[in-house]
C-alpha cells in the first residue's frame, strides 16, 4: 500500500490533473484503481469454506479508506488552478489558463475542455460561480 500511495498515485495525479477528463476516462481510472487494489489486497481466504476468492468492491472500500482516484485528481487540479491564478499576468501558465485560442473548432459536439472540468469541479464543491 505504501508503494501505491507514494509512487503510483502521484504519477497518475500528475498526469491527469492537466487533462480534461471525460466520463469514459473517469471510469477507466476507477477501474484501474480497483484493479491495482485487488492485486495488492487480494486474494483472500474465506473463513467458512477456506477457498480463495476475489474481493468485491464493498470489501475493497472497507479495506482502503482513502478517497478515490478521481477525487484526488479534482483536488489537485483545483489546487493547481489556485496557484496559477495567484501568479499574475506575466507568467506563461496564467496566459494558458485564461487565454483563448484562435481558429475554429471542429464540427459536431464540442469536446470537453479543461476549463469545463474546472467549472464542474467548482460547481460540485459549491465555491461560487466558477472562473467567470
Description:
The chain is mainly α. Helix content is 60%, strand content 3%. It has helices spanning 2-16, 23-41, 57-63, 69-87, 92-98, 114-125, and strands spanning 44-45, 52-53. It has a two-stranded antiparallel sheet. A hairpin with a 6-residue loop joins β1 and β2. α1 crosses α4 (69-87). The radius of gyration is 19 Å and the shape is elongated. It starts with a helix and ends in a 7-residue tail after the last helix.
Q: Let me know the number of strands.
A: 2
Mean pLDDT: 77
Principal-axes geometry comes out as elongated
Spatial sequence of strands, sheet with the most strands = 1-2
What is the strand content?
Answer: under 5%
Rg result: 19 Å
Count helical runs.
Answer: 6
Helix proportion? 55-70%
The N- and C-terminal alpha carbons lie at a distance of: 40 Å
Topology pattern, helix = H, strand = E: HHEEHHHH
Mind summarizing the main beta sheet?
Answer: 2 strands, antiparallel
Low-confidence stretches: none
Structural class: mainly alpha
Annotate the secondary structure layout.
Blueprint: H1 2-16, H2 23-41, E1 44-45, E2 52-53, H3 57-63, H4 69-87, H5 92-98, H6 114-125
Antiparallel strand pairs: 1-2
Helix pairs in contact: 1-4
